[in-house]
Amino acid sequence: MSPKITGELLRQLRQAMRNCKYFSEPLQAYIVPSGDAHQSEYIAPCDCRREFICGFNGSAGTAIVTEQHAAMWTDGRYFLQASQQMDNNWTLMKMGLKETPSQEDWLISVLPENSKVGVDPWIIAADQWKNMSKALSGAGHSLVAVQDNLIDAVWMDRPERPSTQLRALGLDYTGKSKADKITTLRAKMTERKITWFVATALDEIAWLFNLRGADIEYNPVFFAYAIVGMNTIRLFVDLKRLSDPALRDHLQLDSPSKPELSIQTFPYESVYTELQAICAAQGPKDKVWICDKASCALTQVIPKAHRSAIPYTPLCLAKAVKNATEIQGMKMAHIKDAVALCELFAWLEKEIPKGNVTEISAADKAEELRSQQKDFVGLSFPTISSVGPNGAIIHYRPLPETNRTLSLNEVYLIDSGAQYVDGTTDVTRTMHFGTPSAFEKECFTYVLKGHIAVSAAVFPNGTKGHLLDSFARAALWDSGLDYLHGTGHGVGCFLNVHEGPCGISYKTFADEPLEAGMIVSDEPGYYEDGSFGIRIENVVLVIPTKPKYNYRNRGSLTFEPLTLVPIQVKMMSTELLTQKERDWVNEYHRKCREVVGAELERQGRKDALEWLIRETQAPKGTL
Amino acid sequence: MSPKITGELLRQLRQAMRNCKYFSEPLQAYIVPSGDAHQSEYIAPCDCRREFICGFNGSAGTAIVTEQHAAMWTDGRYFLQASQQMDNNWTLMKMGLKETPSQEDWLISVLPENSKVGVDPWIIAADQWKNMSKALSGAGHSLVAVQDNLIDAVWMDRPERPSTQLRALGLDYTGKSKADKITTLRAKMTERKITWFVATALDEIAWLFNLRGADIEYNPVFFAYAIVGMNTIRLFVDLKRLSDPALRDHLQLDSPSKPELSIQTFPYESVYTELQAICAAQGPKDKVWICDKASCALTQVIPKAHRSAIPYTPLCLAKAVKNATEIQGMKMAHIKDAVALCELFAWLEKEIPKGNVTEISAADKAEELRSQQKDFVGLSFPTISSVGPNGAIIHYRPLPETNRTLSLNEVYLIDSGAQYVDGTTDVTRTMHFGTPSAFEKECFTYVLKGHIAVSAAVFPNGTKGHLLDSFARAALWDSGLDYLHGTGHGVGCFLNVHEGPCGISYKTFADEPLEAGMIVSDEPGYYEDGSFGIRIENVVLVIPTKPKYNYRNRGSLTFEPLTLVPIQVKMMSTELLTQKERDWVNEYHRKCREVVGAELERQGRKDALEWLIRETQAPKGTL
């Protein structure tokens, strides 16, 4: 990996900072955040501006260029990678270390008095803008919105914004028509006396219109905005995408059923001026809903007195609670996904002893097997396929220069998932194809105990997911161990594999309570640096349950695993499991055998079926 | 309980609102918060302004009076009591119910345009002021600081502010001299480039100067402020209190050891003008530390550019981590407290069958027995002594009209504690003196399992207490049960029984991580409305522990119970306990027998010793 040569680029950028045609005075600094105008987690190549200017291509990082300095902040996952990808023009700012200044503090320490710091207001979220602006103005500087992106100005071969074909989803996949979704949204708006709602998150817009795209790898979304009023629906999208008659029909563009459900379409770029026009025509009591993580640019169009910035939009909340059709689709997707993984593991068992399987070829095989399943669209995130010490790198992605060969001597961890038209999957299994060490088994068993403690937890309605996080850690903590990531995230239905507003993590307090129909991952782990990594991840569905009592009529919830892939018994120190935990494993394996076995049989995948039966029938006396 | 007649008082208050001599225009509304100028949890009679104006004397509530309306907000604990204590002039605003408006929303709905809402800036915290002010100005009104309290203006027989005798504590009780505490504080100030620190919380000031008072019932504190600079220490207190030569000696008022440790004393009321003078003389880079919960009045004296408002002051953080002397004192206090309680329970066992013991007489007996112990000062909070259905009222305090007789048929819950010169106690035991029902035993056992799950928890250094809260609930949740309060609070050492910055609760995210030397309560419960209440509370000390492994060298912590009072085995469904839980109970009882038994022996308290031995020797086959 050789670093990107950035001297000339920085020269050009600094020139643009001095001669910014959209701003009368020179800028003393320019901030280049990760991310796009929709605050997406994954971004399209045209939005990889931070990577373009500094060379570092990890998922998180912010670059800041001043007249004298260039610095890039990223977290512990990426220290090594960033230091390899950036040349000497750049200072790596290691976030999380005590000696590393915050971006604000660093700017204040290097800027001349009364400096102007520029940022593209479309790619900085309103809440981040607020914090940065406050810190800078407290020190006599000012943060200024530079409408035209200065990176784009020096990026000669910048890719086009993708405009992939849109896919309309029928009721058999979505379970709820876009008309019903709009009606529900408007009911929420009426309840809160809101007159306009601005949708900026790509997955929310895809969900609302029952449309999918492929603009961003792994995420079946498309670049768009939407503004919904009580009688109008405005969709902002590359209009060329709407020429397909079937699509026009789906959106009822030419013959809306009711006037208030008719969709007016506008070019993607016109959202700013349209929102301005809407705000200019507002009554004194009109209120506009927008997510507090939306771009600063769009947020500030709405006058403060009319703005109601909320952490989770009504679409985000509605989307998180899956309906019966979506749940059925997610179940089907997970059965197909389990078929592919059973086949993969049966294949690995045969092939590994030959010594020809690598992290990359195993990941490729997993993709190939998934792609044979009905309604497969693509992967839901880059496969983490890791052997031995690579498994301890939590966000590892095999590259030719790190690629290890699978063997009978090391632990193998594979975290992978796919997009099917009926659902999204995300599963991690940790296996040993030879004989695991006592320590590996011990750690695996603690992780399994944590996985079960969450999966089998019973908790009252209204409980937030973060209150369950410690259940996943208790067995590890008891032995002085832990893992430094959250325990679970929300999962979309043929949408983003990471979605809000719920999750299971010690890191947040702002998650929304878990509700029946929500879907999250349950993925505790343990990572022994330089040696091995363990993670056991199922996607689980929140379901109602009826324990013995019902305090204050609140009702109780628990989880049902959607992922149905055997958990390797060979890795368990079964003597560390309680009877309740053994029963959980046996019942889980019974269900895998029954449900996935039937599908393997139907698909005539004999080897995988044999493997499944072998892996789910615990040897007598062990479980 | 008959309501307070408030018609004439409200007339006078409204007249004061119209003719406020300190404010040119009339006020359309006046807010009367609970609390004093130090944001104390318990307050002195002279500060019970909300009670004076509306009659409601619960610990939490805010009254707002407009020209037409008078409304009082309180929470579910107090709905019944407030409705009984307030007359028809008042509307009870039931917080937590969906239909109840917030104070801001209600004000906006009833006020005429462009209204002025007054509040005493000394008794509203800076953060509350900010929120209220923002909401009101967003609706065209304004919140104004009325320096003279309008309740005081109409309160003819308002009590004097207490000025009790001060008690100096030597090193044998405090373990750290005030000079050392000042030096540590100044080191923190230097580290953060802070030039002045303003102490407003009464327990922090008492701790800093190793002084105690008795100005507020149950809390050994005294009314004072302190301002500490790098070379000066200013103490604001009723100067009459400082005439005692021993006290002057303790504070080295007449012969300070070093100039920078000399204490300048000022009248209590002059803190405002002194702080003004300090701020006026500040350099451009000077920064003043103040708690963000300090009064709006004092906070706003400090210009925003110089103000560093923090959630927990360095004194609050330092005070929370007890030193070896304090820990030893707390242990001694808990042994004495256990002696008193063993004697109480032995006495109850004999007396209850006679039918003459009531909630009130049992509480009085507990106080009498505690008062016989060395260095007893007073109770640390009003004793909750409750029988049967009264036990389900979480903040119950027996009154003549609710007083029940203890019997062999109902569960008895006593939550009580004391102030000793060497430490503060807080313990809850739930007992049955006849034969508990199967359901009572089942619930008690779930609560016990929760208590043990917290007490025996092992967790990494740096863990916040709120991450342990769910451990206390898991057994209850499994059966569909729960309790609607937090699990634990910080406990002071001969200081307030409730203190920050740590605790164990699902309600907060802003607690500071647990550290060895911190002391918290562990008190899960279960409350069956109309029937019984169960709570098992120990005060526990955070201690280091060494489990099998030590991930990333972080080290691990657990708890050591300081409370040593038997937990009634008769109330346990022992078949529901795991072996680990039984071992915990047996080990706990062994320690109670050994440690408290020795002290009972020493004090010659035979009956209590017999009771202790009986209660801590589990019948064979049950535990």
UniProtKB/TrEMBL annotation, chains A, B:
Top-rank taxon, per record: Eukaryota
This protein's UniProt keywords: Acetylation, Aminopeptidase, Cytoplasm, Hydrolase, Manganese, Metal-binding, Metalloprotease, Protease
Cofactor(s) listed: Mn(2+)
Location of the protein in the cell: Cytoplasm
One Gene Ontology MF term: metalloaminopeptidase activity
Subunit structure, interactors included: Homodimer.
PANTHER family: XAA-PRO AMINOPEPTIDASE 1 (PTHR43763:SF6)
Function: Metalloaminopeptidase that catalyzes the removal of a penultimate prolyl residue from the N-termini of peptides, such as Arg-Pro-Pro. Contributes to the degradation of bradykinin.
Name the UniProt record assigns to this protein: Xaa-Pro aminopeptidase 1
